[in-house]
Amino acid sequence: MNLHHLLEKRRVAAKPVRVALIGAGKFGSMFLSQVPHTPGLEVPVIVDLDPERARDACRTVGWDDARIAATTFTKDGAAATGGNIEVIVEATGNPSVGIRHARAAIAAGKHIVMVNVEADVLAGPLLADEARKAGVIYSLAYGDQPALTAEMVDWARATGFKVVAAGKGTKYLPIYHDVTPAGVWGHYGLTAAEAQSAGMNPQMFNSFLDGTKSAIEMAAIANATGLDVPSTGLLFPPCGVDDLPHVMRPKDKGGVLEKSGVVEVVSSLERDGRPVFRDLRWGVYVVLEAPNDYAADCFRQYGLKTDSSGRYAAMYKPYHLIGLELNISVLSAALRNEPTGQPQGFRGDVAAVAKKNLRAGEMLDGEGGYTVWGKLMPAAESLKTAALPIGLAHRVRLTNDVAHGAVVRWADVEIDMKDDAVAFRRAMEAKFSR
C-alpha cells in the first residue's frame, strides 16, 4: 500500500525509476499511456522492430513532442540493458525472443517484468531461478490475469483460507479448439473487413478463442502459486460470479473439480451458446474454503455468496486493465524488490495439439494458427509424454503424421536443438525432471 509514497520519495530526490520497454504493441502502448501521469517514472528507451511505429504509438497515447524527443527509439535490444535502466519490460509476445531478452536483462543486473507470458510458460521457472541467483527480480506483469490471480491466491492464503480453485473467465465453447484464423472473426461478431480496418491480427485473436491463451495463463498461475493443473486439461465450465462457490468445488462436494487446489477457467457461454448470467469473461477469481464454523458464519454475516454448505465462498475481480496497471509490477520490483507473481516451480505446461489430421512434411504455425492449439497439462505428464511445447511449435516441420486431437511430441518434428530457446527449454526440462 506504499508504492506511490516510495515513488514520490524518488521523485523528490530526483532519482526517477527508469524503465526500458521492449515491444510497443497494445500492452506496451497501454503502459506508455500512464507514464506521463506517473511523476518519478521514466521510460527513456523503447525497443521495437519498427521504431517509427513505436514513436507513433507514443503520440497516439498522448506523449508530447518533448518527451518523444528525449526518448531513444531503436531496434537494438542491447540498448535496454545499458546505462542506469533499473527495470526492463519484455512485451514482444514472442517466446524465443522473450527468453533471450530476459536472460540479457538478468545478466546485466536489471529487473525483468515479463509481459510475455508465452515465454514465461515456455521457460519461466528456469528464468526465475537464474534471476534469484543473480539477485534481481523476475516478475509476472500486473494487470494481466496471471499476476492478478496470483495476488488473490496470496491474499487468501495469507489470511488463513484454503484455496480451492483460482483462475479467470473467458468466452469458450468446445468447438473453438479447431477454429483457425480464417474463421475467427465470426465468433467475435466482426467481419474480416472490420477486423482488418481496426488493425486486428487474426492469429493473435484466435489464440484467445481456441483455448491456447487460457492454457498459457493457467500454467503461469500454477507455476507461480503451486496450485495443481487438472489432469485431463481445462474443463471451462459455464459459470457466473454468483455460482463460483457452487460450481468451482470438488466433485465429492457437488462441484465439477477433480480435487481441491487447482487452476481452472470458467466460460461466459453455456454449452448451447447462451450467455451465462453475470459472467466473468474479463475477470479473475479465487474460491476459498472456511477453515472453521466461525469463519463460515462470518461469510454469511458479511454477505458473501457461498455454496449451500456455507463453507465455500468466492472473491473475484470483474475486470483487468492489462498495460494500464503495469506500473504496479515495475514499481514493486524497483522500490520493494518484490515480484508481482513469479514461477516457484514447474507444475503446468502447454502442449501443442493437432487441430486437424496433420501429415509429415507440414509446417506448424504455432499459437492461434491453422495447425495446433495449446492444451494445459501437468508438467510431469508433459515431460513423461515428451510433448512439444506450444511456444516452440512455430515454423517447425513435422516428420510424422499426427492425428486430429493428438499431442505433438518432440519426436514428431524437425527442430534445431542448438537454437538458444530450444536449448534453454531442454535445460529447464532436465532440471525439473530430476
Q: What's the topology here?
A:
Layout: H1 3-12, E1 17-22, H2 26-34, E2 41-47, H3 51-60, H4 65-69, E3 72-74, E4 87-90, H5 95-107, E5 111-114, H6 117-134, E6 138-140, H7 145-158, E7 162-170, H8 184-187, H9 192-197, H10 202-209, H11 212-225, H12 244-247, E8 262-267, E9 284-289, H13 293-301, E10 312-317, H14 327-336, E11 348-354, E12 363-365, E13 372-378, H15 379-385, E14 394-398, E15 413-414, H16 420-432
Parallel strand pairs: 1-2, 1-4, 2-3, 4-5, 5-6, 7-8
Antiparallel strand pairs: 7-9, 9-10, 11-13, 12-14, 14-15
Helix pairs in contact: 5-6, 5-16, 6-11, 6-16, 7-11
Instruction: Report, as a whole number of angstroms, the end-to-end distance.
Output: 40 Å
Strand ordering within the main sheet: 3-2-1-4-5-6
* Shape assignment: globular
Low-confidence stretches: none
**Tally of strands:** 15
| Major β-sheet annotation | 6 strands, parallel
Which structural class best describes the helix and strand composition? alpha/beta
Estimated radius of gyration: 22 Å
Number of helices: 16
- Determine the strand fraction and express it as a percent band: 15-25%
The helix content, as a percent range, equals 25-40%
What is the residue-averaged pLDDT?
96
